């Protein structure tokens, strides 16, 4: 592989105009496609194989035209202190508001609180339910304006009015912190390279790669039913890995120049060595993201595949466009140890009398491996402790900031009708195979009424043939509570008995039941997913490092970092520690997809640093150094660059913490803290400590396996006899620039 990539790097360097033209053309094509693509609606949410989804699909068949996936709104009214909603003036205001709500072209139905018995027992709170033909993301601005206008008119009449539901949901915004993250990345690159030109190359290529990836996603969003979160995730991961991959190749290029190689030769060798590590690091990320498809949740699969595509683009750009741009830059990119005229006068830096910080740190770890290992493991273990209290759920209006009308409507409904009213359970009774459909439905209602934790059961609503019924059940606990989850399971158990006696199937659905089934499906898939991703990556790393213990150590270190990161997420988003610092206004259960998502993404990113750092160590080891010396050499050449890469990735992920979408905020924080733990604790401390303790055993591989494995030559051993030799690049600049 190293030889092939070496030739590719030299070809891209020589044919820089052609390479640049291809990538600019792809960016333009993707941009035009995105600009002309139809506006995508909300991504459909389905959980194949679950009872809640089966019930939802049955409703679509048996109750045609009910727009089960249409947007909803609850307009909640509260009378002034000492008054009742039934008072003449208040009642007239509500009735006027209901009439105003009925005028919308996309409205299918509006319930009158006084006719639907939607008034609280104390008479101070009432609500009107509004149903729309289309989803919240497809709802026209005119419909949203009409809803807000009607609510405002009722407020002007003296009532407290809040609006819940998904009709007023807004497109999430990332805020200015995303730009700040990129700015920090730029500063780190300038410090690392000592050159504005060299620092600009990774940023430029990363932005081009993300531009192509996100524009392609936007162009295909409507056709493939991709939500807004998909492009945000692709942007987040694409920026981080795009900058890092380019950073490693540019850094290796400068190191090759410092050894006196001609610039085209240096570009080829940089792509042949660091580029090989980029390929395998990218493969681990792609495996982890595409592996999300094993969960069998379409939304998660689409997010993973789209982000994996962006990572693949980042790899290809790093391998081809970086050497092309290096050809354009010429002598403006200085050898390692030199700075640009702007930052250091173009003079060679004075050689330090003592080793660099990476060398000193690695030497310390090699001398005290056991102490460093124990301290790192204990520290990560302590950070992981909160993960034992992990509570999973999906965000609803109750998790919105207290400043939003959705949250205030949620609280008013809880005060007036009980906490379970915000998450009603919908029972679908399929009595098509029953001899007495109505009798079966009546038995379901009577059985559920007697269950502990049930506040009320509404009369059944039948379809036209009378063989299917809907029943709404209100629990006495809030939707995200364990008590409500237990009630759902109790109803389903009771339904099994009814089915055996009457041949009528009882299915529980609704948003609350969907959330419960979603969480359960993710929990059930976590172990198989972990086994698949870690197993494939383990085999891949055996090929890369030609060792059994090094990949095993890499996987165990990943488990430590991801558990510590989950612990940090629980501490901030569930317990509320330092929540105000990052703008978390409402704590609550952790998103159900967070554990499995972090396992996938963090594993892929963690292997990046493992590959980049340890390949340098193996390169030194196979060239004759002792295991301890190889660890120090690996840190001498790689620690500074890996540190810069980790800081950049943390900065990019942290930039998404400013998002108004709680899911993006949580993912941004989780990935940033996970990279911190993995890069600076696991890879920088535990990895050298374990390798120092193992010695030569770290690189052990059974002979039969050594013969069976393909030789991918990540270290660039096959490049020794290739190239134009060592020529001082400074003497060739004029001819190189002339060729440009």
Layout of strands and helices, then pairs:
Elements (H helix, E strand, L loop, with lengths): L1 H13 L1 H21 L14 H12 L9 E7 L9 H15 L4 E4 L14 E8 L8 H16 L3 E6 L11 H17 L2 H29 L3 H31 L4 H28 L7 H32 L11 H4 L12 H11 L1 H16 L7 E2 L11 H13 L7 E6 L6 H13 L4 E4 L3 E2 L5 E8 L6 H21 L2 E5 L1 H35 L3 H26 L15 E2 L2 H29 L4 H28 L7 H33 L8 H6 L24 H7 L1
Parallel strand pairs: 5-11
Antiparallel strand pairs: 1-3, 1-4, 2-3, 6-9, 6-10, 7-9, 8-9
Short synopsis of the structure:
Helices cover 62% and strands 7% of the residues.
What would you note in describing this structure?
The chain has 740 residues and is of the alpha+beta class. Helices cover 62% and strands 7% of the residues. It contains 23 helices and eleven strands. The protein has helices at 2-14, 16-36, 51-62, 88-102, 141-156, 177-193, 196-224, 228-258, 263-290, 298-329, 341-344, 357-367, 369-384, 405-417, 437-449, 482-502, 511-545, 549-574, 594-622, 627-654, 662-694, 703-708, 733-739; strands spanning 72-78, 107-110, 125-132, 160-165, 392-393, 425-430, 454-457, 461-462, 468-475, 505-509, 590-591. Strands 6, 7, 8, 9 and 10 form a five-stranded antiparallel sheet that branches. Strands 2-3-1-4 form a four-stranded antiparallel sheet, with helices on both faces. A hairpin with a 5-residue loop joins strand 8 and strand 9 (468-475). Helix 18 packs antiparallel against helix 21. The chain starts with a helix and ends with a helix. Mean pLDDT is 84; it is low at 346-350 and 729-740.
């Amino acid at each position: 592989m190293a030889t092939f990539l070496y030739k590719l790097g030299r070809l891209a360097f020589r044919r820089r105009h052609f390479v640049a033209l291809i990538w600019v053309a792809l960016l333009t094509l993707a941009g035009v496609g995105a600009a002309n693509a139809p506006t995508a609606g909300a991504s459909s949410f389905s959980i194949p194989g679950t009872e809640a989804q089966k019930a939802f699909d049955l409703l679509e068949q048996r109750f045609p035209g009910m727009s089960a996936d249409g947007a909803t709104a609850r307009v909640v009214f509260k009378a002034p202190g000492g008054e009742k909603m039934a008072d003449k003036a208040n009642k007239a205001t509500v009735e006027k508001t209901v009439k105003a709500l009925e005028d919308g072209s996309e409205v299918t139905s509006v319930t009158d609180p006084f006719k639907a018995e939607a008034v609280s027992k104390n008479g101070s709170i009432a609500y009107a339910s509004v149903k729309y033909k289309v989803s919240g993301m497809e709802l026209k601005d005119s419909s949203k304006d009409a809803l807000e206008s009607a609510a405002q008119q009722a407020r002007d009449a003296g009532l407290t009015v809040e609006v819940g539901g998904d009709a007023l949901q807004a497109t999430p915004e990332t805020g200015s912190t995303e730009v700040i993250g990129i700015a920090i990345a730029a500063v780190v690159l300038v410090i690392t390279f000592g050159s504005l030109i060299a620092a600009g190359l990774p940023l430029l290529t990363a932005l081009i790669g993300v531009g192509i990836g996100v524009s392609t996603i936007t162009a295909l969003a409507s056709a493939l039913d991709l939500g807004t979160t998909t492009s945000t995730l692709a942007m987040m991961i694409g920026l981080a890995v795009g900058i890092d991959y380019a950073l490693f190749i540019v850094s290796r290029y400068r190191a090759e120049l410092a050894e006196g190689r001609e610039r085209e030769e240096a570009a080829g060798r940089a792509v042949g060595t660091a580029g090989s590590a980029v390929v395998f690091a990218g493969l681990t990320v792609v495996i982890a993201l595409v592996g999300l498809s094993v969960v069998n949740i379409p939304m998660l699969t689409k997010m993973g595949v789209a982000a994996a595509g962006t990572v693949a683009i980042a790899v290809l750009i790093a391998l081809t466009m970086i050497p092309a741009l290096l050809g354009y830059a010429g002598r403006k990119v200085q050898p390692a140890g030199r700075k640009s005229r702007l930052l250091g006068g173009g003079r060679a830096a004075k050689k330090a009398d003592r080793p660099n910080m990476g060398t000193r740190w690695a030497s310390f770890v090699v001398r005290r491996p056991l102490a460093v290992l124990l301290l790192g493991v204990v520290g990560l273990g302590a950070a992981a402790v909160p993960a034992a209290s992990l509570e999973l759920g999906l965000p609803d209006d109750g998790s919105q900031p207290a400043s939003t009308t959705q949250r205030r409507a949620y609280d008013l409904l809880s005060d007036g009708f009980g906490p379970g009213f915000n998450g009603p359970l919908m029972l679908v009774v399929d009595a098509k195979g029953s001899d007495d459909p109505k009798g079966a439905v009546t038995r379901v209602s009577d059985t559920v009424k007697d269950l502990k934790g049930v506040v009320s059961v509404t009369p059944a609503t039948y379809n036209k043939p009378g063989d299917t019924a809907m029943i709404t059940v209100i629990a006495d606990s809030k939707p995200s509570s364990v008590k409500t989850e237990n009630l759902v399971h109790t109803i389903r158990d009771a339904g099994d008995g009814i089915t055996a006696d009457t041949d009528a199937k009882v299915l529980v659905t609704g948003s609350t039941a969907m959330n419960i089934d979603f969480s359960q499906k993710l929990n059930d898939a976590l172990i198989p997913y972990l086994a698949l991703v870690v197993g494939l990556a383990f085999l891949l790393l055996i090929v890369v490092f030609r060792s059994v213990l090094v990949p095993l150590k890499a996987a165990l270190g990943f488990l430590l970092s991801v558990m510590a990161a989950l612990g940090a997420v629980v501490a901030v988003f569930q317990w509320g520690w330092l929540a105000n610092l990052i703008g978390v206004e409402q704590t609550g259960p952790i998103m159900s997809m967070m554990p499995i998502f972090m396992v996938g993404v963090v594993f892929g990113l963690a292997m990046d640093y493992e590959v980049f750092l340890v390949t340098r160590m193996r390169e030194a080891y196979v060239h004759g150094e002792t295991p301890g010396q190889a660890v120090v050499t690996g840190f001498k050449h790689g620690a500074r660059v890996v540190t810069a890469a980790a800081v950049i990735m943390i900065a990019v992920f942290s930039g998404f913490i400013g998002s108004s979408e709680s899911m993006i905020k949580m993912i941004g924080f989780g990935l940033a803290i996970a990279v911190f733990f993995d890069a600076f604790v696991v890879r920088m401390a535990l990895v050298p400590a374990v390798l120092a303790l193992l010695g030569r055993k770290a690189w052990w591989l059974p002979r039969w396996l050594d013969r069976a494995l393909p030789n991918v030559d990540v270290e660039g051993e096959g490049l020794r006899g290739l190239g134009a030799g060592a020529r001082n690049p400074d003497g060739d600049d004029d001819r190189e620039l002339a060729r440009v």
